[in-house]
Specification:
Elements: H1 6-22, E1 38-40, E2 46-51, E3 56-57, E4 60-61, E5 84-87, E6 115-121, E7 130-138, E8 142-145, H2 147-151, E9 157-161, E10 172-179, E11 193-197, E12 221-227, E13 233-242, E14 255-260, E15 273-279, E16 282-289, E17 297-302, H3 307-316
Antiparallel strand pairs: 1-2, 2-5, 3-4, 6-7, 6-9, 7-8, 8-11, 9-10, 10-11, 12-13, 12-15, 13-14, 14-17, 15-16, 16-17
């Protein structure tokens, strides 16, 4: 795909470098601040708003296949979002710490070794699970995707496949899910979520977890990814402009529109990473696709405006900056 666009790509990356020198907020993560919203359970006890998958009751983790009907854990409007519960602090479960820690990996071109395929279905029939979203691997067991992908699978079990791993056919069970605390299901503002896998992904040789561009807005030209007819990841080169692809719909502070170049085919899957050149010949994740292609364009959500939330959450897995931020070349 790169060869087909080589001249266009070189020109657009040069434009991208010039723009990057003159724009972009300084959003260096502050690891000391963590989101914490207090609430009151119906019986009067104090609690903390958490995603329902991170709250246990009577020693057992709540089943991922459905939400139990328990007024003890719910708090009405105290917690923002229907998937957030008011949970007593003693019952809050935390995702396990990442064990295999290495620096993140930025590669050249439109290859996506960190791309993840997400499946949903009945826990008793894993083989019948359907592909419904994409994502990107951070650390060795964390998947960054959209909060919308969380919402549409909330009553089902979720699994993940990493096609470029040492075990491309393995279905990793998702054990914890956490959506951005500021996610708006109507406008899709801050449409991000983190899924935790039940096992660490294995690689042939060097691990290939993604680097995140937390302090920069989208570049003018980037790649995103979708599926071909065989559900294999393929790339799409896009020009990115600030704002929604459809004026008046989905307009948020963190949305941009990615359009294909010269009427080329458009392959973009919801939840897939949007990668841009952060350093020469080094592509990192600048955003997550919020929609598939429609009329050769797709909605993208920038991650730089969620830098604080992402950095704080990843620290909770025991990761440091070197594990998810590209280190400066020396």
């Amino acid at each position: 795909m790169i060869m087909a666009f080589s001249e266009t790509l070189t020109f657009l990356f040069l434009i991208s470098a010039v723009v990057a020198q003159s724009s972009g907020p300084n959003l260096t993560p502050n690891f000391n601040a963590r989101f914490r919203k207090e609430c009151t359970i119906s019986d009067g006890r104090s609690g903390i708003c958490v995603d329902y998958t991170n709250c246990k009751k009577e020693g057992g983790v709540i089943e991922r296949g459905g939400i139990i009907d328990s007024s003890e854990l719910r708090s009405g409007d105290a917690c923002k979002g229907g998937l957030n519960w008011c949970c007593s602090e003693s019952n809050i479960t935390k995702p396990p710490e990442v064990v295999n820690k290495e620096e993140c990996f930025a590669r050249d071109g439109d290859f996506c070794p960190w791309c993840v395929s997400l499946y949903r279905g009945d826990e008793n029939n894993e083989k019948a699970a359907e592909l419904f979203c994409a994502g990107v691997l951070i650390g060795s067991k964390i998947v960054l995707t959209t909060a919308t992908c969380h919402v549409v699978s909330v009553y089902q079990n979720v699994w993940a496949k990493i096609p470029d791993s040492a075990e491309p056919g393995k279905m990793y069970s998702v054990t914890h899910r956490k959506q951005n605390d500021n996610y708006n299901s109507g406008s899709h503002e801050y449409d991000l979520a983190l899924f935790t896998l039940d096992d660490e992904v294995k690689w042939n040789g060097q691990r290939k977890v993604a680097c995140l561009a937390l302090t920069s807005p989208f570049k003018p030209v980037c790649f995103s990814f979708g599926y071909d007819a065989n559900d294999k990841f393929v790339s799409t080169l896009v020009e990115i402009t600030k704002g929604s692809c459809t004026p008046g719909a989905g307009e948020t502070v963190d949305v941009s529109c990615g359009k294909t170049i010269d009427d080329e085919p458009c392959f973009v899957a919801t939840g897939a990473p949007v990668i841009c050149e952060e350093q020469p010949n080094k592509m990192t994740v600048y955003g997550i696709a919020r929609s598939p292609c429609r009329k050769s364009a797709a909605q993208f959500g920038a991650i730089n405006l969620s830098s604080q939330w992402l950095a704080d959450e990843l620290k909770g897995y025991g990761l440091s900056e070197a594990h998810f931020l590209l280190q400066k070349s020396t």
